[in-house]
Design a protein that fits this description.
There is one protein chain. The chain is mainly beta. Helices cover 6% and strands 55% of the residues.
Length: 860
């Protein structure tokens, strides 16, 4: 082993020595704004005008860039671009052999376009708000921050130092985190990948285990809180999160990266980019493999990520780009448990781990494979108009495994998975027309077609020869000798074809969606204003093969119209900007809220949800200090929600007082349908960046919210046979909205000690945190808590083209014990015990303790 390391070190040293003697040239410098502030993430594109060869790079967190491996001579054309700024162009540049040309671009005039050349493809669809211009509350996270902060966690970890954002659930397992924006969960926050919607069409949810590859391929994440700037006919209550993947048109080269972390986490990545070739093609490819034991007991997992982007520059007017990405994975899951269990067994306790047939195992497991492909076409029609279109598709397969019995016919336990396969295709197109120097017009459409397939299949018979089950009205009691794999690579082919192999339910969901959207934007002399509007139609239907006789299982088509209108204005004078916006949404209910009881029964209470958003803000930007202050108010009316849980002994006593085993027994599913819920969210947010001296940066954020339910809510409770067990009403006026911290603040610092070496640390405090809303009690207030994270980075330039980078993170340095979420609010009947004011009989989830990860990356 030592000889191998010595050989590697000598090879790297000799390689650097050889390349240090080359006579190629480079262009280096620091990009700044007119205020003197350095510009993070600016794109530098260098074109050899004779051959057409292109080299690209971007400015780091200090505005510095270095484009190496350029041949002497010229002429070269150098373009420096950044969101919201007019491109800087340097023509007829000639380089001397071995010269490092110093170029320090300074932006002086804002651009009238949204993205210009910052994003090579789909720039008419990717709605990235421009700094100090677009009148919305926005936070932009660069690729460098993603690489530094995420480590072994989900990409949501890059957003924790953002006002209004709360992330929890990490300890449940790989990809199990969830985030809220201004108190609204992920199903009410719009997520876009290169302009493509990725929220589930049936319930609006996003499962990060299906998107673990975003950590590796995202070049930019922008959080638009509140209304957002998206031109699509989407209704984002909390905000809009834009993920922009790395463009194909990159400098030739690649990297190899290895990461390790707590609980045996290992991840390896290799990537390569051809750069733009003379043929007009460019290819970027990346493959990642990972595995680990997980933080919570029994939450092992493993997976792969793949990414392929093929771009073709047809001519000066047409650009094409095909992207394919996916993240097949499996992971065992953790869950909430009583606080007393965690205090007794430790915060890594997992109630899902049990001994079956003498073997300890976790009965809950998620496995999924969701390949996504999109084809982007950008057409520059003339100097005043352009058309951008993305055609996308996703074919997914997988499910969630748990322990199950079939009462009466198969009382012995076995493992089965609830399968969720889907096919999703869509197209989004946007036409942009520059009406004059100050006025831009956009119009476009958004079409989506979705089909989801749902059933239960046996994955492990736990020693039984066959599994008997009943419930399908067409066949009565059936027996299956088969079981199916939980390998995500096999899930597409290894699945039941016959009714006797499908348990519990067997149905399909169909959703068709069409939207039209338009925007008018005006900008002149520091003043900008926009108006957006959209109209959408949604058709929902259902085909059931389980609860209906053959040929009778097709539901009626349910059609709903929706709309949104929003507008805003901003004014910039020197370093100061003020803005305001307002919007009204009428959003169609999700599929799962339209059809009740897992049947074709149409919910007559499922009406369009009404969302009203108001916001105002102030921004200040200078060389040494930036600050943003936002105030908002969002009301969300006519909510219809649904949830389910396994019945406890107390539930059986409440909902089945006669103790009839055919009605409800402990462990059966209970289904809750909630109507008439209204939420009122208001608050103030602040974030700032200070650069008091070279190499040091201080960041901070704060969010103070007041999020409450309002009015009377009705809840209908049903059992697995879809029989109504209760019809309850309760007044929720004044009850606090849970699942997120309503008051939070934090500070972060980064110091560049010497060239290539930097240290950073972040502190966060969470207050006014409440659990989720229980079925028959108000939300429970949880204890406040504080977290401190820290990291160190070092980059060693081996040659003008090669570098080795090191990164180490330690999260929750002080190993703070805290509750990140809760699902109940109860008091023990006898001898209650308390921890920080919380009855220990409550179901909670503990946050991660101290964790760490380290990585090394070789760039070539």
């Amino acid at each position: 082993m030592k000889k191998s390391l010595l050989f590697f070190a000598l090879a790297v040293a000799s390689y650097g020595t050889i390349h240090a003697q080359t006579t190629t040239s480079s262009v280096t410098g620091v990009v700044k704004q007119s205020t003197g502030q350095t510009t993070t993430g600016a794109t530098i594109k260098i074109t050899h005008q004779s051959s057409g060869a292109t080299f690209s790079g971007s400015a780091d967190s200090n505005g510095h860039f270095n484009i190496a491996n350029l041949q002497e001579g010229g002429p070269y054309k150098i373009e420096v671009t950044y969101i919201g700024e007019k491109p800087l162009i340097y023509d007829n540049v000639f380089l001397k052999a071995g010269e490092a040309l110093q170029l320090d671009p300074v932006f002086a005039e804002s651009s009238g376009t949204n993205l210009d050349e910052v994003v090579i493809v789909g720039r008419g669809l990717i709605d990235i708000a421009e700094d100090r211009k677009t009148p919305i509350a926005v936070s932009t996270i660069t690729k460098q921050i993603i690489e530094e902060k995420v480590g072994a966690m989900d990409i949501t970890a890059s957003m924790v130092n953002t006002p209004g954002v709360y992330v929890s659930g990490q300890s449940k397992g790989f990809g199990e985190s969830s985030m809220t924006t201004r108190g609204f969960d992920q199903s009410n926050t719009a997520f876009l990948l290169n302009g493509q919607p990725i929220n589930g069409m049936d319930n609006g949810r996003v499962y990060w285990s299906n998107w673990s590859g975003l950590t590796d391929i995202a070049s930019l994440v922008q959080i638009q809180r509140g209304l957002g700037s998206s031109k699509l006919a989407i209704s984002s209550v909390g905000g809009t999160i834009n993920f922009v993947t790395k463009s194909t048109d990159m400098q030739q080269g690649g990297f190899v990266k290895t990461s390790i972390g707590n609980d045996m986490f290992v991840k390896s990545t290799i990537a390569y980019n051809t750069g733009l070739m003379k043929s007009g093609f460019a290819v970027s490819a990346m493959v990642t493999g990972w595995k680990g034991n997980g933080y919570m007991n029994g939450t092992e997992g493993a997976g792969q990520n793949y990414f392929l982007s093929v771009g073709y520059k047809v001519n000066e007017k047409h650009n094409l780009n095909l992207m394919v990405t996916g993240a097949p994975q499996w992971h065992n899951q953790g869950y909430t448990s009583s606080l007393s269990n965690f205090l007794k067994e430790g915060r890594k306790f997992n109630a899902n781990v049990e001994t079956i047939n003498g073997v300890e195992r976790n009965v809950r497991k998620n496995y999924y494979h969701k390949p996504v492909a999109n084809l982007n076409w950008d057409w520059t029609i003339d100097d005043k108009s352009s058309l951008s279109t993305v055609l996308y598709g996703s074919i997914a397969s997988g499910g969630g495994q748990s322990k199950r019995t079939e009462r009466d016919v198969n009382p012995e336990p076995f493992l089965a998975s609830q399968v969720n396969n889907h096919q999703w295709f869509g197209v989004v197109s946007n036409y942009n027309r520059k009406l004059n120097d100050n006025l831009n017009f956009n119009v476009g459409f958004d079409l989506r077609d979705y089909k989801g397939e749902h059933y239960i299949q046996v994955t492990d018979k736990l020693g039984q020869e066959t599994i008997s089950h009943k419930g399908n009205v067409n066949y009565g009691t059936m027996t299956t000798p088969n079981s199916y794999s939980t390998n995500p690579w096999k899930s597409f082919g290894d699945k039941p074809k016959n009714a006797e192999d499908r348990l519990g339910w067997d149905y399909e969901q169909m959703i068709r969606y069409a939207g039209l959207f338009g925007q008018l934007e005006y900008a002149k002399d520091g003043f900008s204003a926009f108006f957006q509007g959209s109209l959408s139609g949604q058709q929902n239907s259902r085909q059931d093969y389980y609860l209906y006789k053959i040929g009778e299982g097709k539901s009626k088509d349910v059609n709903n119209l929706g709309y949104n209108v929003k507008g805003g204005a901003s004014y910039t004078l020197g370093n100061h900007t003020i803005f305001g916006n307002a919007g009204l949404y009428s959003r169609q209910p999700y599929q799962n809220n339209i059809f009740m009881n897992y049947r074709n029964d149409v919910n007559g209470e499922a009406r369009n949800e009404e969302i009203l958003g108001l916001e105002a803000g102030y921004k200040f930007a200078s060389e040494y200090f930036d600050v943003n202050v936002n105030a908002y108010k969002t009301t969300w009316a006519h909510r219809v929600t649904g949830s389910s849980k396994n019945a406890t002994a107390a539930d059986v006593k409440k909902y089945n007082p006669t103790n009839d085993p055919s009605v409800l027994v402990e462990g059966d599913y209970l289904y809750f349908s909630n109507y008439g819920v209204k939420q009122d969210h208001k608050g103030i947010e602040l974030d700032f960046v200070a650069r008091p001296f070279r190499g040091f940066e201080l960041k901070g954020f704060a969010s103070v919210g007041d999020w409450k339910y309002d009015g009377m809510a009705q809840t209908i409770v049903r059992n697995e046979n879809r029989e109504v067990l209760a019809n309850e009403k309760r007044d929720l006026t004044g009850v606090k909205v849970g699942e997120a911290s309503q008051t939070s603040w934090g500070l972060g610092a980064k110091y560049k000690v010497i060239k290539g070496l930097s240290f950073d640390a972040d502190y966060r405090r969470y207050e006014d945190l409440y659990g989720s809303l229980p079925a028959s009690a108000p939300t429970m207030k949880l204890p406040n808590y504080e977290l401190v994270d820290a990291g160190v980075s070092y980059r060693l330039e081996v040659s003008p083209k090669n570098a080795i980078s090191f990164r180490v993170n330690v999260n929750n340095i002080f190993d703070t014990l805290y509750i990140s979420e809760a699902t109940s609010n109860s008091v023990a009947q006898e001898n209650p015990q308390y921890w920080k004011g919380i009855d220990t009989s409550n179901s909670v989830l503990m946050g991660w303790g101290r964790t760490w990860n380290a990585s090394v990356k070789f760039t070539f």
